[in-house]
Amino acid sequence: MSALRFPHLPPSEPQGCDLLTQERSKTTFGVHDLSTFLYGELYLERQERLLALLENEPAFNKSNRYFKGRTERIAGALRKDHALVKLSQKHKWTPEEFMQAEALIDEAGPFGLHRGMFMPTLASQSTDEQIEKFLKPAMRYEIIGCYAQTELGHGSNVQGIETTATYIPETDEFEIHTPYLTASKWWIGGLGKAANHAVVMARLKTAGKDYGPHAFVVPIRSMEDHTLLPGVMAGDIGPKFGYNTTDNGCMWFDHYRVPRISLLAKHSSIKPGSGEYVKPPNDKLSYGTMVLVRASLVGAARQGMAKAVTIATRYSAIRRQFVDKDSPKMLGDQIIETSVIDYSMQQYRLFPIIASAYACFFTSKEMMRLYYLNMKNMASGDFSMLADVHASSSGLKSLTTTMAAAAIEECRRACGGHGFSSFSGLPLMLQDYVPNVTWEGDNYMITQQTGRYLFKSFRDLVAKRASGKFNASLINNPTLAYLNTYLDNPDLKCPATSAAQFHNLEIQLAAYGHRAAHLVADIVNALDVEKRTWNSMLVEIYNVSVAHCQFILVQNFILGIRGEMPQPEGVAVVELSPQAKEALTDLSDLFALHMIHKQPGEFLTSGYLNAKQVSLIGKAVMDVMENKIRPNAVGFVDAFAFPDFLLNSALGRYDGKVYETYTEMATREPLNQMEVMEGYETYIKPFTNPQGKKGNTMQARL
Amino acid sequence: MSALRFPHLPPSEPQGCDLLTQERSKTTFGVHDLSTFLYGELYLERQERLLALLENEPAFNKSNRYFKGRTERIAGALRKDHALVKLSQKHKWTPEEFMQAEALIDEAGPFGLHRGMFMPTLASQSTDEQIEKFLKPAMRYEIIGCYAQTELGHGSNVQGIETTATYIPETDEFEIHTPYLTASKWWIGGLGKAANHAVVMARLKTAGKDYGPHAFVVPIRSMEDHTLLPGVMAGDIGPKFGYNTTDNGCMWFDHYRVPRISLLAKHSSIKPGSGEYVKPPNDKLSYGTMVLVRASLVGAARQGMAKAVTIATRYSAIRRQFVDKDSPKMLGDQIIETSVIDYSMQQYRLFPIIASAYACFFTSKEMMRLYYLNMKNMASGDFSMLADVHASSSGLKSLTTTMAAAAIEECRRACGGHGFSSFSGLPLMLQDYVPNVTWEGDNYMITQQTGRYLFKSFRDLVAKRASGKFNASLINNPTLAYLNTYLDNPDLKCPATSAAQFHNLEIQLAAYGHRAAHLVADIVNALDVEKRTWNSMLVEIYNVSVAHCQFILVQNFILGIRGEMPQPEGVAVVELSPQAKEALTDLSDLFALHMIHKQPGEFLTSGYLNAKQVSLIGKAVMDVMENKIRPNAVGFVDAFAFPDFLLNSALGRYDGKVYETYTEMATREPLNQMEVMEGYETYIKPFTNPQGKKGNTMQARL
């Protein structure tokens, strides 16, 4: 039977493309100027060039992405990863080009962790010999690896892992073993089917002592035919909420022997024969990588929010619903339904997300700068920045990934029923995004690291101020600065008395600083004076991390717009046009005020703001949204410069052809490839036409 | 190649089953007593009986549910729906039995809307003749129907639909037509593939006038062979975030003629020949159904939260992570990791969800009672309850479905990485649940109905009080009661001065009443005095609906525990045991205090609570969680009485065999049915062994 043909009808007026054109005509700044500020000219040119390549490669075609079951999707992702490597080799891509192409294709795959974790681990922990043996073949994809740390019973607490690697002096080998079911390696991306090697984190046992988790490079599948090696069992852990194009795997070792060179020995090693353990020189070095990963997740959070809100904002300008009776819209002399973007509730849902995406842009940039600066410092023995950068990166990872997951889901819901369709692009985006709130440290758990740093800073500062040897002008980081301002006057009140005054960015920043400091002081008092246990304070500790990181986001947003953020070495400065600067200032304004308006509790309990002021802030929020952000909403999301190929969304298309694209996508649904569904004869006909009567019986009945 | 065999290893100590046994020994109340209070003995017995049947029917087997792609899932769901109808016919199930069986199988299907919307619409809007012609064959599944209201361009605003049904006097027919792409019927459950009839909402046009949307029963597929009838095009709208076992469909009509009897004519009709329109007697009657659907969604919200938190609570008692240094747990003389349920943050995430599920139980019960009472009243011409019930049902639908969606996702995340696995049961649960926040009125949009009612009530009350003819003792509903208390003294302050005093339920309820009334008064002032537009107040209107409905939930929880909630007619009272009553009182306490603690803003800005009191509430929350709820946590979720067959979760099993079940489920992953994945030769081998070398080359290299 032939496929169904849906009719080609036009949508009723006004058309989506006309509505978007109209929106774009209202933009007060040059969209390309703002895109260039965000990404640089080079990046945007490269995007055009890469797009032309990617859109022509069948392995990257997205038109059937939403229809496939997991088995098909994994097969497609392997084909895609293969094609990507081939293409990168053909065109001799730089790492930047590779990453940008990967982001445009936007689908995890079996080789992802080979590049993302296996090779970086080899690079940072290998001896020269190991670089030759493991890293170089890995770079040529002769070795395809994965990173096997997490166990079935052990996630965030790496120290608790149970897999053992016992040194056998007689043969100069390690015996890797899985003693319990809870020690099964689990969740390991690329392990399920693709990898032939693994970095395995296992407890190093030698000379009767347990030295805790160490990294071992271990062959797991045969280089001849990819079968599992004797002593290794591995497979796929099954379907997941998202990330189904990756073969997350599980693995067990049965007294599996590997030679001594398997232990990645740049930092710590074993003396052959005696099995004596040689300690690493400084274990702080490993924090560097953690900071990098967490800082890069702030950038990924920006990307996630920005993609989702691009779709929702464009669609909201097109979708019309009900008539706003106080201000009806006209088309000629007809009253038409109001675009949903004109409802204040929709603005309150979406515009703060636009603002958050820009906020994360500045903070992500700053975190990367701090990471490189800190690495440089540490290399020369200066660890003074590490605590601050580590604390911020933990708290910011937690806050921004939580924000982004909420933002994607909010955008999905803000698209109404159609946000539930896969063709909106939002369900899969959410499903693939949400592991970010769990991996690299659960978002609740890791805020304890931020808290610990804040409390220590506060206690040190209090002690210093009491010592008489204190000089405020020596304070060199923003955390100490806001804590110090608070200690100068804990009972300070916000001076603003009108909605207009709350648009002052300094007034906003002071409120965030005071609130964070007040929470820090409260918790330190509870811990040190009231002697409450750490466990009993975890909710407050989470909240203080949020408050601290919101301060950072607000501050970087302000400094970034002003051009006052330090520039990374060797990076050319791109100036903001005055129009774009003004428009971004409105977003920064909304960003800071909206968070207070939505959750004013701590600003009030800190005593810094009062009820009247919160109400003024509410007015200021509605004012900036309606009068400043609304005309630029589509321009702000256009400036993110996401091509349709990336978004793969019927609702978020640049040209506004929402309903036509949506219908066209539905024609490709496999169920529509035949008119009568397969189960009809067995499961429907016995009810509706058991005797197999001929003729259109029901038509006749009518 | 043969399937992979994962090893049978035991988890390390302590075992999940022992941990749950230990938890259960701490429960202070009889779990079965509480289950009986929730459901009644009859329901629980029926569940056992139905389970025995369902678990033996292959069409209901859930063991491969998480592995299937959409095409397979739709096919399986049709098979399941067929089997369910056959089983119900064989055992002559009552509607209650049918619904209970459906809930245990817990999978939407192609016949769902036939029962859920098609037949109920026929039942309420048919003439006697139409009952014979349409409803009776539908009850026998000769007719399988769907309910086609939503259009591609028109959702919540039903008045905006564009499909037309024009009366043709010459032939005494209606011509149904789709004029634009935006008029395509869309999202119609069961339409995609299964239905042969549809109730179509179309604009009734007759004698040159447009009478707006009316319901028509229309044949769409042939009764002979299920092909589409000439003039009708229909298909499936494609994959969705969830609900993928339902064939949501789209449909177009091309000048499609149906006889006059197609118009469901109980309330309004057309005179043959002249085409004169006969108006319905009272259009308020249709609100009844809307109230029923929204009220039933409160019950579904309870079910959703309860299922999710059952899984997360049991798993949290088993999952161990890190050592709480202030209070390390021992196994023999070994320090072991602490169960995550013992961390205060985990308690703060999960216990309020347990409390919310119980809160929704009482309010759902009360809403159903009010629905039936209101229907009875309306039948005798008394519409006095309608406004209040309609307003509450809208606001409660919005609040409780938003709470439930958030709760399911929070439970998923609270299971850490494993919550991301489909085998946790939580991803699919979330995906299938979330349409609730959009359908039956978008959760932001419908709160305007609640707001309108509150503002009118407030204005009327103010006018009555000013008239001098006011008698407070005549106030007969809780909304007016809290508004009146507020008007007696808008500047009232909460009298509590210690954490202990906040455990007083009356003090809690007064805070909720004052806060809601304060918001109502503020908005009425903004609308009536400041003359702000309705659109500019939508955020505040949403917030006031939340505040009002939180008041209702808190109040019903308190009354329900005390046995002071009115009992529906003819329903036997089940008494709470004193132990269960005490335990539920702790939950009610937590429910009320936690919401204030989490979002204290409006309680502070209303002036009713101060910062010190919010801090005391924080202490009260932590105290009740640790000392009262913690020992009963597993008992509370056990009392929900969800069988493992329903939950279908490795993490939430009653017996605590988390890791064993999880591993066993992974063995069934299709990718594990062969050792080497299909794409190896094409996509991996060219990199790893291009020359096809024999021998384990990498092993050799090591």
UniProtKB/TrEMBL annotation, chains A, B:
FAD binds at residues 150, 189. The active site is at residue 440. Residues 31-144 form the Acyl-coenzyme A oxidase N-terminal domain. Keywords: FAD, Fatty acid metabolism, Flavoprotein, Lipid metabolism, Oxidoreductase, Peroxisome. It catalyses: a 2,3-saturated acyl-CoA + O2 = a (2E)-enoyl-CoA + H2O2. It is found in: Peroxisome. InterPro entries: ACOX_C_alpha1, Acyl-CoA_ox_N, Acyl-CoA_Oxase/DH_mid-dom, Acyl-CoA_Oxase/DH_mid-dom_sf, Acyl-CoA_oxidase, Acyl-CoA_oxidase_C, AcylCo_DH-like_C, AcylCoA_DH/ox_N_sf. One of its GO terms (cellular component) is peroxisome. It comes from the Eukaryota. Pfam families: ACOX, ACOX_C_alpha1, Acyl-CoA_dh_M, Acyl-CoA_ox_N. This is Acyl-coenzyme A oxidase. GO terms for biological process: fatty acid beta-oxidation using acyl-CoA oxidase; lipid homeostasis. It comes from Podila minutissima. Its cofactor is FAD. Residues 146-254 form the Acyl-CoA oxidase/dehydrogenase middle domain. Residues 505-688 form the Acyl-CoA oxidase C-terminal domain. Belongs to the acyl-CoA oxidase family. GO terms for molecular function: acyl-CoA oxidase activity; FAD binding; fatty acid binding. Pathway: Lipid metabolism; peroxisomal fatty acid beta-oxidation. Residues 287-454 form the Acyl-CoA oxidase C-alpha1 domain. The keyword Zinc does not apply.
